Amino acid sequence: MTEAAGADIPRGEAGDTDHYAKEMTGKAKEPPKLDDLVQYVSLHVRIPTPLTGVVLPFVPLYLSAFYLWIHVIGGEESPKTDQISGENQTTTDHSTTWNDVGFIAVVAIAFLHVLTLLFCYWSVHVLAFLTCRRVKLPGANVLAKVVPTANNGNSKIVPVKSSKLEDGSTQYFLVFQKTKYVWNEDRKTFRAVEFPVNGLLSSYSSSRGLETEEAIKRATLTYGNNEMEMVVPEFHELFIERATAPFFVFQVFSVGLWCMDDYWYYSLFTLFMLVAFECTIVKQQLRNMSEIRKMGNKPYLIYAFRQNKWRHIGSDELLPGDLVSVTRSQNDNIVPCDLVILRGSCIVDESMLTGESVPLMKESLESLDNLNIEMDAEGDGKLFVLFGGTKVVQHTAPTKESLRAPDGGCIGYVIRTGFNTSQGRLLRTILFGANRATENNVETFAFIAFLMVFAVAAASYVWVKGSEDLERNRYKLFLECTLILTSIIPPDLPIELTLAVNTSLIQLTKLFVFCTEPFRIPFAGKVQICCFDKTGTLTTDNLMVEGIAGLAPNGACVPIEEAPGNTVQVLACCHSLTLLDDGLVGDPLEKATLAAVDWTLTKMDSVIPKRPQFKPLKICQRYHFSSALKRMSVLAGYLVPYSNEVKHIGAVKGAPEVIQKMLREVPSDYEKVYLEYARRGARVLALGIKEFGTLGSQQIRELKREEVECDLIFAGFVIISCPMKPDSKSVIKQLIQSSHKVVMITGDSPLTACHVARELRFTRKKLLILTPPDQEERTSWSWVSIDGDQTYDLDIKRGSKGISLLLGTHDLCITGEGLQHLQQNQQQYMRHLLPLITVCARFAPKQKEFVITQLKHLGYCTLMCGDGTNDVGALKHANVGVSLLTSAPVKRKRTEEEQQQAAAAANAAAAAAQAVANANQQLTPRERALRRRQEHINQTQARLQNALRDMEEQTMVKLGDASIAAPFTSKSSSITCVNHIIKQGRCTLVTTLQMFKILALNALIQAYCQSVLYIDGIKFSDTQATMQGIFIAACFLFITRAKPLKTLSKVAPLPNIFNFYTISTILSQFAVHFGTLYYLTSQANILAPPREGKVKLYIDMDAEEKTKYDPNIVSSTVYIICLSLQVATIAVNYKGHPFMESLRSNRMLMYAIGASATLVILLSTGLAPELTEFFEIINFPTEFRKTLLGVLILDIIGAFILDRICSFLFGETRCKSKVLNC
């Protein structure tokens, strides 16, 4: 491990490794990993290009294929005679067959080669396997394959760099996700650079900064500069990344094939549409990255104590071990790095990191007596640490003269810089934290593989049957077979999916819910467990002081106006509030209590009463709140009336169990009173006061905390309530009734959290809290009821059976301490337990993230709703992360450049519209229809872009709002948005599944039409194909426009395509449709006149023949059947209730289906001669008309009945989970 720079820098833990996370992993039996970010690193060197797996295996394959094709097969020419004998004819057939095989072999090798190259783009592991070889030690030109831990981004190949140390040795290192890892010669592995974060407080306090030039060079070499540089990639880089995605590659391949088969207009139009769609996504990504880039630190000049002298240096040049001067933040300057305050004090706004808008008081180490303890920057040491990315609202210069900065700022010791600071870690989480959900998921590919089976069968049939005609061009036949493969897989599948998602996106935008990852919307329909933060999410931030308890008989709560003088004095002076130019800053709880007693704070730390019976108080000394001590205290003085004598009092407030030990006399009902109010969900603080008499200034300075916090007179309990948001209860009720498990994950106390859970009806059962051993009553961890009258042992041996018995009558609450215990000692039990927990209390942000990732790992689809960036990990890793914006959004004005761009875009659109109008005159009807459909899709896309642009103007997301890291952001602070998101998610999911079913049935019918019927010479006219295309496009558009119902359904939809219901209904409906098609085609063939000569396929025709169309009874029958089958497919498989509006409510879809059904009847019966003539349909014999109509009606009825039978047998809704609250 690299030594820390400078002898005076304390050693610490790895820069990326959070101390708490180490405890969390504890004794977990998992594969050894480097740290919380990196699972393992393997070293590789590049193989010479000719010897790589993407070149070497293919060279002999190409040479062999070409040699056999050209020299061996091509050399076998038939004898040169005028009359070809039977033997020579056989030889020619044999040669032609092998010639075809040679051509196909070359194409197959080329296809495999391209696919191999693409796999190198898609997978780092494949790239390393094919182009590199493993090595054990780093060196020149060595690469490192870095594999991150789960939910921490993607694997990457990075170069191993080197630098020369002072002793002449070479140090090897790599940089992954902005974190530096150094090669450790002893352990033969990479380790993260150690930062001085866990040293003794005395080592920081006695430091004189970086005293020598060597120390500065060593620190620079080890840690690098304090930079948070985020390079926004170029447009073309991101576009290439999108353009090599599997779906896009397949679509471009399909377009290429269509171009080769004379579909020029359609192909190029589709390609333009695909590129435009991908460009839209890339622009959105670039915009998000630009926003994140603004979150980095901007360098500014700061005073640093180097080489025993104060020097003005750039904040980006700071190094761990530096002493710096920190003053009030001006011109949007923020704290440049993480540092420990050695001298002076500050008030800091940490909202950019935590989301909490409450400024905090930060003290210096000079206020401590005992400095021989280790720093814990994430625990109690927070009081002394200024975190990078925060704002200093006010600072107080050091009182002692030992070391003062020229600008009178607080003196701080730098402990972490760059991306290793708290702000840097947050940015890393946003940049690399979790993989984005896209349409390219496994399920879609499995669906394509399912269709491909039928496509291969159809293509094989065409090849075998087409090859029987020896005069037929094999190249064109092979091209036709390939086209069948690509057309069976719907090329517009991603666009149809996008349309469904975009409709939901626009609907959510209208509800002030914005989404940065649209393809997460269907995940909202799959959600099983909904997790909520408590404070600011379920409850409001407006605290209410109910009164004072514990002083009146029976522990009754009296109004604050009736409180005795001692109590009022404690509430008036025992706080950390400060008055600044922009008002009172500090903890909302302390603000509420000061307002309740009706006292006023001045800038000189004096509190003045508005009622004359009280005397003003001057705060002389503060002993700040600590989570370990669970209390705070102050020393205050007041002027004795009619004299100059100042008397002093000590005022203390804190947790009742802590204050109890400090009281001179404890009331008999002390515990009973505070526990009663705590169980009601109120925050209870005990108050104590102590008279000191007159003290001199020297005595005040030397007075220790312990002297203030002893022999106190009890001054009552202050009871503070945090009201619920008005709609929280109704939202939770709807979620539970709609087959969701609801969980509360909060940092608040278990009693308060359990009370809120009961109030909001998270549970109707009694709650049990996992409680640590108590020497008096319990010897081991156990489940204890809130009132303490029931205790159950932690029955590890019985595992899930023991939990099930408990859940029969109770629900469970677990604390952060309890989770840590189970994580370290009972992992299997913890995995059984986690999905069944209802309340998680006293949870740290890392623990919230751990619970979410564990639930995902166990197979549950999770939603997390929070309001602060301290929830960023959980929001990022949840399947659906919802952030509530608690602050009012900032209106963003358009820049002049944007206005000019908008004007230019409008002019370009007008010119394009004119060009399209001119081009339309030269197109065939089919191409015009395709273009109209494309224009409709483009309009929808334009509406989406306008909505996104409006969203950008309505609210510009600020740091401190978790929204940049969460896929969903609500401008409202109400959790009603969760219901909206789930409703839209279910609607989109059901729409998507229905579209998959319809596309699958259409593809199967098309497979039969393009193979068996194609070989029989049946084809449609241009008009017929165009009208059929318009109908399908219109129906899909109207399906995607379906809106969700106003209330959440009690049942949940099926989460995926592959289930017994979907597969069985597709196959059974296809069987009915296939039977109809086969029977009616056979009947039409009987009535058709005898065929003269051989069948001429489309590929055999010349340009003139392709434009002619001669209708016959078979082609007319097949067209009407195909039209009817598509009507039946959509009518049978569109289901509205209980997730979205019914077919009757979706008027446009109903009209489209009705119009198509009417068209089928009119074309079959011949009642409208002009219509049959336009569609180029012949007049059918009377008997055949009856047969045709009768069979088509039976087909729809049969498909409907079979679908309902499948639905009855297998169910169309998700089974209820065992983890549900109800």
From TrEMBL:
CDD domains: P-type_ATPase_cation
Protein name, per record: Manganese-transporting ATPase 13A1
Gene3D superfamilies (alphabetical): Calcium-transporting ATPase, cytoplasmic domain N, Calcium-transporting ATPase, cytoplasmic transduction domain A, HAD superfamily/HAD-like
Family: Belongs to the cation transport ATPase (P-type) (TC 3.A.3) family. Type V subfamily.
Location of this chain's protein in the cell: Endoplasmic reticulum membrane
Pfam families: 2TM_P5A-ATPase, Cation_ATPase, E1-E2_ATPase
Lipid bilayer topology: Multi-pass membrane protein
UniProt key word Translocase: yes
Keywords tagged on the record: ATP-binding, Coiled coil, Endoplasmic reticulum, Magnesium, Membrane, Metal-binding, Nucleotide-binding, Translocase, Transmembrane, Transmembrane helix
P-type ATPase A domain ranges (all copies): 305-429
Superkingdom, natural source: Eukaryota
Residue ranges crossing the lipid bilayer per the database entry: 51-70, 101-124, 238-257, 263-282, 445-464, 1025-1045, 1057-1080, 1118-1136, 1148-1168, 1188-1210
Residues covered by the P5A-ATPase transmembrane helical hairpin domain: 48-136
Coiled coil regions in record: 930-957
